[in-house]
Design goal:
Layout lengths: L1 H5 L1 E5 L2 E5 L2 H11 L1 E6 L1 H9 L1 H9 L2 E4 L2 H9 L9 H11 L4 E6 L2 H14 L4 E6 L6 H11 L3 E5 L4 H10 L6 E4 L3 H6 L7 H6 L2 H8 L2 H6 L2 H14 L1
Helix pairs in contact: 2-6, 3-4, 5-14
Bound molecules: uridine-5'-diphosphate (UDP).
């Protein structure tokens, strides 16, 4: 029960976020099992407009601050915490759960396959029991296959909110599994998309690098950040 000692859940804009170190987060979810949400301002914005998504976040077993936006929001509310980038967290979980049945769902077929090949080279006892790309029309078919494969770690890369909704439904069928929505992580592991250079990562400016590389993200991400900060300030002062 050590995990209870290290976990502190605080509230930001009505959503619980767990404050903990990297290793505590891994240890916690290994003991508790269930859904991990790596939350960012865009997701919080969407959840404020969508009750079902809000419920998914509220019922998640672990909610970790993925980006600089949530870190700033927490700081405004008086909480100092480190960011836990989802891509690094998921990679640590793979190592921590190596040997246990593991499943990957999401991304383009060639991307998920290349990511799996690279992971097999890095983690010799990787026990990959299921793999599927993220472009399917019937969730039920994939969920039934996953239930038969009985994975204990499931990484889902469908983008948000699709991946969180998929996991939320699957959690009822696989309650003993750890499941994480990992966004673009398979693209990174496949080597087809590069993460920002370390200096950007350290400064919390990975979003800026990705936006410059992929300008269509600008419209999606840029307004969300300042609006999010304004909302948090409003909450603090009200
Ligand atoms: N993706 C998918 N199926 C879909 C939509 C997206 O498998 O229907 C994959 C996409 O190929 C990418 C991942 O979801 O690998 C994450 O997409 P995005 O970069 O939009 O997510 P973010 O990391 O920004 O949350």
């Amino acid at each position: 029960m050590r995990y209870n000692l290290d976990m502190k859940r605080v509230v930001l804009l009505g959503f619980g976020i767990d404050l903990c170190g990297f290793d505590e987060a891994v240890e916690f979810i290994q003991a508790k099992r269930g859904q991990v949400v790596t939350i960012n301002p865009e997701m919080m914005d969407f959840a404020q407009k969508n009750e079902y998504f809000a419920q998914i976040i509220k019922e998640a077993e672990l909610v970790i601050p993925d980006g600089i936006g949530v870190q700033i929001g927490l700081k405004i509310m008086g909480y100092n915490t480190k960011r836990i980038p989802g891509v690094e967290f998921a990679r640590k979980l793979i190592d921590a759960c190596a040997g246990e049945p593991f499943a990957m769902v999401g991304a383009k077929p060639e991307v998920v396959e290349k990511a799996a090949d690279n992971l097999k080279k890095e983690v010799p006892n990787l026990n990959l029991v299921y793999l599927h790309d993220g472009y399917f029309s019937d969730d039920k078919v994939i969920m039934d296959e996953l239930v038969s494969a009985k994975p204990s770690l499931v990484l889902v890369a469908l983008g948000s909110p699709k991946q969180e909704e998929f996991i939320y439904k699957l959690k009822k069928e696989l309650p003993e599994a750890i499941m994480v929505g990992v966004g673009g992580s398979f693209d990174v592991w496949s080597g087809m998309v590069k993460r920002a250079p370390e200096v950007y990562q350290k400064l919390g400016l990975e979003w800026l690098y990705r936006t410059v590389k992929e300008p269509k993200r600008f419209k999606r991400i840029f307004p969300a950040l300042p609006l999010f900060v304004l909302k948090v300030l409003k909450e603090k002062w009200s």
